[in-house]
Each structure stands twice: as C-alpha cells, then as structure tokens.
Amino acid sequence: MTAHPTGEPLLELVRLMDQLRSPGGCPWDARQTHRSLVEYLIEESYEAVEAIELDDRSALREELGDVLLQVVFHARIAQEAVSEPFSIDDVAAGIVAKLIARHPHVFGDATGESADHLESRWQAMKSVEKGRTSVTEGIPEAMPALLLAAKLLRRAEHGGVEAEVATAPVRAAADQAFDSVGEAGLGQLLLALVDRARAGGIDADAALRQALREHRVAVVAAEVAGLGDHA
C-alpha cells in the first residue's frame, strides 16, 4: 500500500518547470506556447486512454505524469501572459472550489442520491454557473465523433430532453442489427459500417458529425418546445 500523498513531488514539478522556462533554462521549453503544445496535450491524453484500455498500470502511471506535465506547462506559460495571467495555484484553487461547490452532498447539507441523479444535478449546476440555456452547450465539437455522440445523447437524457436520434426506418434497422450481433459484436458491427461506407465513398466520421449537428438542432428544438408547453 502506497504512503499517503504529500504533494511534495507536485511542488517539485512546478519548481522544475519554472526553471526550464526561466532564463538559463531550456531553449525548447522557453519557446513553447499554448498553441504549440496542443498536439502534445492531445497525444498524451490518448496515450493515457490507451493505457487504461489495456489495463497497463505501469504505463498509466507514466502517461498520467505526461498529462500532468502538460497541465503544469500550460499553467507556467499562462503565468507569463501580459493580459489575464494565471498560475498553477489559480488552476488548482479553481478546481478545488468547483469540486466543493458541486458536491453539496459531501461538503454541504444536501442528501446524496443515486449516481445518475447526482450527474444530472451536476449538469444543472454547471448550466446555472455558466449561464447555459441548452444541454447542448459546452460540448466540444472537436471531440472524436463517437465520444461526441455519447456525450450529446447523455446530456439530453439527463436534461430530460426527448428528441428522436434517427428516422423510424433507420432506428428499426439499428435495433435489428444490434439484436443480431449483441454487445460482444458491436465493435465489429461499427467496423463493418465504416468499411461499407468507405466502399461507397462515404466518410463515416463526417457522416456521423453531420448527423450530430442535425441532432443538436433537434435537441434545442425539443427544449424550446418544452419551454413553450410549460409557459
């Protein structure tokens, strides 16, 4: 069993990054910007995901360190900004305050309920904090298409928004296909659909993204209609 974390190595990482960015440090690190580091943030995140999917504990520990480096790196760059600078302390303080505010069942008097109920309440609190008027807001469209689809559908479900995800014939075909292969064959079914689309000269990712854009519109329309029904 590992010892209780002290946080000292985190402080050492902050000090190390400060040295690398300061005069006399590393020229490569010193010339990096938020934009130049985007590719590394994405790459390290995907490598951490891969380690999780492979259940590789050693690799996960290393990849989480690489992701953490990106957080500290970006915070150190932000510290140097002339306009609206912030530091790693501001980043940490912000997430601490957010976690406390969004867990009233732990740090306040609210009663904790099911995980699904808590997720719905979390999303509702985020909407109020950020002034959002739709469950579709705040979902990055740059996410991988399948993750984006799952995110949008889950948001709508937790928001109580009912919008058809496909026409009746398409939904029936999807149900039949899923029933025929089951959960174990779902990956192969998706791969076969991508292969079929490729053979027909269709970009499956682009097609899904277009369907998601249309579904966003349908979700917003359902929200507006719901508000009208309760007016």
Task: Label this structure with key terms.
Helix Hairpins; 11 helices; 231 residues; mainly alpha; 2 domains
Could you walk me through the main structural features you see in this protein, from its secondary elements to its overall organization?
The protein is an all-alpha fold. The protein folds into two domains: 94 residues, MazG-like (Helix Hairpins, Orthogonal Bundle); 92 residues, no CATH class. 69% of the residues lie in helices and 0% in strands. The protein contains eleven helices and no strands. Helix 1 crosses helix 4 and helix 3 runs antiparallel to helix 4. The protein is globular and about 65 Å long. 6% of the residues are buried.
Oligomeric state of the chains? single chain
- Runs with pLDDT <50, length 5+? none
Average pLDDT score: 89
CATH superfamily (homologous) name of the largest domain: MazG-like
Radius of gyration from CA coordinates: 22 Å
How large a portion of the residues is in β-strands, by DSSP E? under 5%
Estimate the helix proportion, in percent: 55-70%
CATH fold field value of the largest domain:
Helix Hairpins
CATH architecture classification of the largest domain: Orthogonal Bundle
Tally the helices: what do you get?
11
Q: What does the largest sheet look like? A: none
What are the secondary-structure elements, in order, as H or E?
HHHHHHHHHHH
Name of the CATH first level of the largest domain: Mainly Alpha
Q: What sort of overall outline do the alpha carbons produce when their principal axes are compared?
A: globular
The count of domains is 2
How many DSSP-defined strands? 0
- Class derived from helix and strand content: mainly alpha
Distance between the termini: 57 Å
